[in-house]
């Protein structure tokens, strides 16, 4: 699993990368009340805003961590945004992307690196 | 930036693991371990304890007693204080010469003087305003007391063992109680839409008093985050956001707080700053009004969101002043000002969120029914 400085996690399973936010990010955001996901089939580029989430505190944008095509989104968190807080690193995933440049993954931190990043 | 001030409960908040934030110059708890959503729900279901010690507590005295103080203060507020019963409390606001609102406040008849509670951000200005406007009165800020709010249906069972007799009080009754924590100044009031109390306690007793309340199974500490969503669901204004010097009480829908005696043809009509503007607006109407708004879907429309009369209109007809997700109604909710022509309940409007026009309907407030002990 890889981690971004934007507090996203990326899990590569046979060429499809699942993206979500970390436990730390979910904790910092507070209770999430609204999620807007991209449509399946959308081509995204790195650092493009692809997901909007609103917590009890504020709205936040989630950036695409890599270039690629959105192949699946987690509709369950649209119906029940609290699932993101309950299990951000598992059932609260956001979308799956088929990367067009898998090498972009290499830029990101591993778990130990992320842990020291959040201190 | 100046260092944040602390309340007598700041150390307790830290010990309880609160996330702290700066608010009106004070270091205040934003949320505790439960988090905003659960704190909100807990308050509606059981009881929540809020530190509101940042608010100003002020005593206004006149040599002739309550009547003199009431008569004097009526020159600054459009509220009927002369007929306010002993130990009764009333909501009001300071107005300016243009009819705008300088602050909103609670006023209590304490027999031989008036007790006033004002907002934290305005308290220095309010006290200066009263000192300047009430030359025959003694205006003294109470600086050795904390203020706590205990809100929710179980508030009565948590407070009654400490302040016997508080259970028979009705909404907006007040009283002075002796207790193990010294003299408590209690009112059956609050700002959540729930039954409950606001309790003024000596600063040096505040922490042990708060711990005694928190020891009750039904009571949890609640931060400013849930305080905001609770008051918004209850349709209550936050000064500085929903009302300020640019809004009049008529535009804000607060004319219920202007009793008959202070209105045109009343016994003591007018006589407060901006009376001409406010009484004229009451007679002839206003161009914009504060309304409740219920967005469709789940996305909140927050403070500043522009409101349009149609999906393609170029000019907004209003804007949101407060918006959040309502944990009890399980839906987003907002309040704001819109053109008077668009204020009927269920009127279809559009709010611009992230560049998109999203449907929203005018809704009556409160969003949740009030649960006061009338």
Task: Provide a compact summary of the structure.
The complex is a heterodimer of chains A (119) and B (374). Helices cover 20% and strands 37% of the residues of chain A. Chain A has helices at residues 23-29, 76-79, 82-86, 111-118, and strands spanning 2-3, 8-13, 16-21, 32-36, 43-44, 49-55, 59-63, 68-73, 95-99.
SSE order and pairing:
The complex is a heterodimer of chains A (119) and B (374).
Chain A (H helix, E strand, L loop, with lengths): L1 E2 L4 E6 L2 E6 L1 H7 L2 E5 L6 E2 L4 E7 L3 E5 L4 E6 L2 H4 L2 H5 L8 E5 L11 H8 L1
Antiparallel strand pairs in A: 1-2, 2-3, 3-9, 4-6, 5-8, 6-7, 8-9
Chain B lengths: L9 H6 L3 E5 L2 E6 L4 H10 L1 E5 L4 E7 L3 H8 L15 E7 L5 E9 L4 E5 L4 H11 L3 E5 L3 E7 L3 H5 L14 E6 L2 E6 L8 E7 H12 L4 E3 L2 H10 L41 H10 L3 E8 L10 E3 L9 E9 L4 E9 L8 E6 L2 E8 L11
Helix pairs in contact in B: 2-7
Structure notes:
Chain A has 119 residues and is of the alpha+beta class. Helix content of chain A is 20%, strand content 37%. In chain A, the strands form two sheets. Chain A has a six-stranded antiparallel β-sheet with strand order 1-2-3-9-8-5. Chain A starts with a strand and ends with a helix. The relative contact order of chain A is 0.26. Chain B is built from eight helices and 19 strands. Chain B is 19% helix and 32% strand. Chain B is an alpha+beta fold and 374 residues long. In chain B, a hairpin with a 2-residue loop joins strand 18 and strand 19. The interface between A and B is medium-sized, with 13 and 17 residues.
């Amino acid at each position: 699993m890889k981690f971004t400085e934007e507090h996203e996690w990326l899990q590569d399973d046979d060429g499809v990368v699942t993206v979500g936010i970390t436990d730390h990010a979910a904790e910092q955001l507070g209770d999430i009340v609204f999620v807007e996901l991209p449509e399946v089939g959308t081509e995204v580029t790195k650092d493009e805003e692809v997901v909007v989430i609103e917590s009890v505190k504020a709205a936040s944008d989630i950036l695409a961590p890599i270039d690629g095509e959105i192949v699946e989104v987690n509709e369950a968190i649209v119906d029940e945004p609290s699932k993101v807080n309950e299990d951000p690193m598992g059932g609260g995933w956001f979308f799956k992307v088929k990367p067009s440049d898998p090498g972009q993954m290499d830029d990101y931190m591993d778990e130990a690196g992320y842990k020291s990043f959040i201190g | 930036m100046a260092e944040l001030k602390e309340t007598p409960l700041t150390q307790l908040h830290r010990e309880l693991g609160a996330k702290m934030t700066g608010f009106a110059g004070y270091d205040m708890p934003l949320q505790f371990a439960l988090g905003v959503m659960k704190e909100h729900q807990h308050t509606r279901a059981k009881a929540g304890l809020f530190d509101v010690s940042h608010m100003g507590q002020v005593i206004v005295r006149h040599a002739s007693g309550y009547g003199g103080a009431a008569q004097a203060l009526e020159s600054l507020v459009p509220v009927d204080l002369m007929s306010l019963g002993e130990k009764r409390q009333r909501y009001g606001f300071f107005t300016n010469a243009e009819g705008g609102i300088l602050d909103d406040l609670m006023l209590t008849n304490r027999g031989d003087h008036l007790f006033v509670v004002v907002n934290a951000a305005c308290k220095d200005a309010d006290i200066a305003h009263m000192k300047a406007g009430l030359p025959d009165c003694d205006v003294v800020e109470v600086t050795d007391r904390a203020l706590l709010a205990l809100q929710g249906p179980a508030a009565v069972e948590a407070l009654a063992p400490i302040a016997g007799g508080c259970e028979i009080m009705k909404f907006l009754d007040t009283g002075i109680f002796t207790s193990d924590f010294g003299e408590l100044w209690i009112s059956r009031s609050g700002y959540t839409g729930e039954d409950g109390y606001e309790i003024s306690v000596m600063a040096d007793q505040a922490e042990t008093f708060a711990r005694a309340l928190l020891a009750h199974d039904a009571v949890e500490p609640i931060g400013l985050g849930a305080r905001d969503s609770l008051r918004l669901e209850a349709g209550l204004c936050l000064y500085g956001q929903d009302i300020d010097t640019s809004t009049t009480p008529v535009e804000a829908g607060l004319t219920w707080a202007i009793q008959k005696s202070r209105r045109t043809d009343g016994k003591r009509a007018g006589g407060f700053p901006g009376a001409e503007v406010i009484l004229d607006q009451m007679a002839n109407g206003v161009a914009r009004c504060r309304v409740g708004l219920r967005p469709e879907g789940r996305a909140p429309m927050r403070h500043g969101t522009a409101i349009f009369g149609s999906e393609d209109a170029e000019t907004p007809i209003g804007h949101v002043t407060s918006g959040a997700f309502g944990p009890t109604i399980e839906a987003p909710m907002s309040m704001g000002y819109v053109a008077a022509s668009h204020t009927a309940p269920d009127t279809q409007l559009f709010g611009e969120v992230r560049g998109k026009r999203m449907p929203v309907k005018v809704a009556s407030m409160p969003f949740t029914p009030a649960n006061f002990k009338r």
